[in-house]
Amino acid sequence: MQNKYADEGMSLIVKTITRFTVWLIFLYGLYIFIHGHLSPGGGFAGGVIIALSYVHLTLAYGKNFVSERINRSAMHNLEALSAIFYILIGLIGLYIAENFLQNFLGKGTLYHIISAGYIPILNLVICVKVGMGLYLVFYYLASYQVKKTGVN
Amino acid sequence: MILSQFIFVPLFAAFLIALVARKRENIATAIALIATGWIFIFSLIAFFKLPAEAGMIMKTTSGWKIPFTIALVLDHLSAFMLIVINLVAFFSAFYAIQYIKHFTGKWNFFALFMLMLAGMNGVALTGDFFNLYVFMEISLISAYALVAFGTESEELEASFKYATMGAITSTMILFGIGILYSFTSTLNMAQVGQTIQANPSNKLLFLVYGLFIAGFGLKTALVPFHAWLPDAHPSAPAPISAMLSGVLIKTLGVYALIRIFFNIFGAPPVVLTILLLLATLSIVIGGFLSLVQWDFKRLLGFSSISQIGYVILGFALGTKLGILGGVLHLLYHSIFKSLLFLDSGAVEYATGERDIRKLGGLAKKMPVTSFTNMIGTLSIAGIPPFNGFFSKLIIIIACFAAGHFVIGFIAALASIVTLAYFLKVQKHAFYGESKLKNNFEKVPFTLKTSMIILAVLCLVSSLLLIPSVRQTTVQPIVDAVWNATQYIDKIVPFLGSV
Amino acid sequence: MILYLMCFFLFLVGLYGAITKRDLIKIILAIGIMGYSVNLFLILIAYRSGALAPILEKGLEFSMVDPLPQALVLTSIVIELGITALLAALAIRIYEKYDTLDITKIRRLKG
C-alpha cells in the first residue's frame, strides 16, 4: 500500500496485523447488529464495534492517513440521517398503528433472521448512528491540536 | 392529542438542523422557529383541551401494556410545565436569531437548543422513572455544551464545574431509581407509588429520599447545592441563560421534586421539613449574595437561587394556598427572570460590557431595554400591579397561615432585599452618568420584540388571579399537586395485568 | 448483603475521588467509577439465584435473571459515554486556555 504517512502511527508489525484484522472486526460488528434481535448484542453493541474498527485503523496508521481516506462530512450526514430515520419509523408506527414507535411489520417466526418486526431496522439505524457518532467523537478528541496560549 | 409530538418534534428539528443546515444557517433558524412555535401552540391546546376535573391523558409508546413500556402522562401539572417551557423556549429562540450573529456555528447552537428542549418536554411528560433520568441527561448534556458555547476560559470552567456536579448527582439519582426498582419491581411511577403507599415505613425509602433530594436539589440549585448556578448561568449566551434560569432548573428540579415527592411518595413530612429549611436558606443566602455582585448576569444568577427558594417554599408548606403560590411563582419567575436575562443580553450585545459599574445612562440610549428591565425589576421585587407581588404575597400569607411565622417574616424581608439589589442595577446601569468608552451597537428587532412581549406578559399574567380565571386555569394544577394520590388513582385503570 | 455494601463502598470511593482530587482527568475517572458502581448495583438487583442469562434458546426452558436492569445498564453506559466524552473535550479546552489541569489553579470565576 502506497503511503505517504508511512512514518506516522505505529510500527510495521502493528500495521500489517491491522490490515488483516480490521476487516474481521468490522465484519463482527455487522454480525452483532444483524443478529441483534436473536442473540446478545444489537444496534448499540454492533455500532460500537464498527466504530472500534475505525479507531483501530486510526491508532495503527495515524490520523492523517485515515482522515484522507474517510469522508467525514458523509459520516456527519449519516449520523444525523439515521436519527431522522429512527423518528420517521416511529412516525410510521404512529400513523399505521396507534402509538409512537409501535410495530407495524409482521412478527415472523421466532429464531429466524427475518423476524421481530421493525427491530432489525431500528438496530440498523442505531448501529449507523452509534458507529459514526462514536468514531467522530474519537476523531475530534484525537485530532484536536492544543494551541499553547500561555495565559496563565 | 399526540403526546409524543412534544418530544419528537424538537428531536427531529435538532437532527434535521444537523443534516441540512451545517452550511446554510438561515435554514437552521427557520427550522428552530417552526419547531418551537409548533410545540408552543400545541402545548397551549393540550392545556386547554384537558378536562378540568380529573383530566389526564395517558399514552404508551410502542403499544405495549404498561409495565413493559414507557407511559407518557399529561395531567394538569405537566401540561402547565409544557406551557412554561415552550413559552420561554419560543421567545428565546426568536431572540437568538439576531443575538447569536456574533458566534460561529449557529447550527450547533440551534441543534443543541432543540435537544435541550426535547429533553425538558420529555421530563415534563414522562411517567417512568428511568425515562425521567434519560430525558434529564439529554437536556443536561446539551446544557453543559451550551454553557461552554463561547469557549472562553471562564465559560469552559463554568461548564466543567456544572458538568461534574451534574454528573455526580445524576449518578445518585440513578442509584435511587435502582433502589426503588429493587423493592417495587417496576419503573412506572404510578405502580411504584402504589407499592410504596401500601407499605410506607420501609427504612430503605429514607436513603431514596436523601439521594433524590441531593440529586434533584442540585438541579434546582437549592442552597447547599447551589455553587454551580452563579457560574454556569451567566456564562451561557443570553437566550440560553434565559432558558436555564427560566425553565431548566424548574423542569429538572422543581417539577421532578414535586412529581416524585408529592404524587409518588405522597408528600412525606420529613421531606417537606427538609425542603422548607433548604428553601428558606436559599431565599436568604441567594438574596444577600446578590447584593454584593457587580456583574449583571451573575447578580441575576444569584437572584434565581433566591427566587427558586420561594417556589420550593410554597410547595413545601404543603397547604393548598402554599401550592397555589408556588405554582404561580414558578410561572411568573420563568417569565420575569427570562425577561431580565434577555435584557442583560441586550445590554451586553449593545455595549459589550457586563459589569454594571462600567455602564450607566443607558435609559436614554436603549429605551426599550431599559423600560422592559424596569418592568422586570418591579415584577421580581413584588411591586403591586405586577405579577411577582401576588405570588410572593400568597406564599407569605400561606407561611403565616401554616404557622411558620419566622419563615414568613424572613420571606417578606428577603423581598425587600430583592428590591434593593435590583434598584442597584437600575441606578448603576440604566440611570446616572454614562461611563461607556466602547462604541455602541443598536439593539436589533428580534431582541426588542421578545423583550416587549415578555414584559407585557409580566403584567397580563397577573390576570390569572381573577377568581373565575383561576378556577379554570390554576386550580386544576393545584389540585393535581395537592391530591397526592390522585395521580396514582387515575393511572391505575390503565394498568395492564402483569 | 455484603455485595450490596461493597457496591455502595465503590460508589463512595468514586464520590471521594470526585470531591478530593485536584486533577481534571482524575475527577473524570472518579465520575466514571461512580457510574460503574451504579451499573454494578443494577446488575446485582437483577440477580436471581440459579438463573441464567435472559436469552431465548430453541427448545430450552429455564429461569432467567431480570433482563430489565441489564437494559438500563446499557442505556446508562451510553449516557456515561456521552458525559465522559464531553468532560474530556472540556478538559482539553481548559488545558489549552489555562495551561494546567489542576483545579486549584483554574479559578477565574469568583464571587
What's the overall average pLDDT of chain A, rounded? Answer: 85
Tell me the overall shape of chain A.
Answer: elongated
By oligomeric state, this entry counts as heterotrimer
From the alpha-carbon coordinates, what is the Rg of chain A to the nearest angstrom?
Answer: 19 Å
Uncertain spans of chain B: none
Largest interface: B-C, 37 and 34 residues
Structural class of chain A: mainly alpha
- Cα separation of the termini of chain A: 46 Å
Helix content of chain B: over 70%
Strand arrangement in the largest pleated sheet of chain B: 1-2
The counted number of beta strands of chain A is: 0
Shape of chain B: globular
Describe the protein's architecture and organization.
The complex is a heterotrimer of chains A (152), B (498) and C (111). With 152 residues, chain A is mainly α. Chain A contains 5 helices and no strands. Chain A has one domain. In chain A, 65% of the residues lie in helices and 0% in strands. Chain A starts with 11 loop residues before the first helix and ends in a 9-residue tail after the last helix. Chain B has 498 residues and is an all-alpha fold. Chain B has a domain at 283-465. The termini of chain C are far apart. At the B-C interface, helix 5, helix 6 and helix 9 of B face helix 1, helix 2 and helix 3 of C.
Topology:
The complex is a heterotrimer of chains A (152), B (498) and C (111).
Chain A: H1 12-34, H2 43-61, H3 63-69, H4 72-96, H5 119-143
Chain B: H1 5-20, H2 25-49, E1 57-60, E2 71-74, H3 76-99, H4 106-125, H5 129-147, H6 153-184, H7 189-198, H8 204-220, H9 229-235, H10 238-264, H11 269-291, H12 296-317, H13 320-351, H14 362-365, H15 367-381, H16 387-401, H17 405-430, H18 445-460, H19 467-472, H20 474-482, H21 486-491
Antiparallel strand pairs in B: 1-2
Helix pairs in contact in B: 1-2, 1-4, 2-3, 2-4, 3-4, 3-10, 3-13, 3-18, 4-5, 4-10, 5-6, 5-10, 6-8, 6-9, 8-10, 9-10, 9-12, 10-12, 10-13, 11-12, 11-17, 12-13, 12-16, 12-17, 13-15, 13-16, 13-18, 13-20, 15-17, 15-18, 16-17
Chain C: H1 2-20, H2 24-46, H3 67-98
Helix pairs in contact in C: 1-2, 2-3
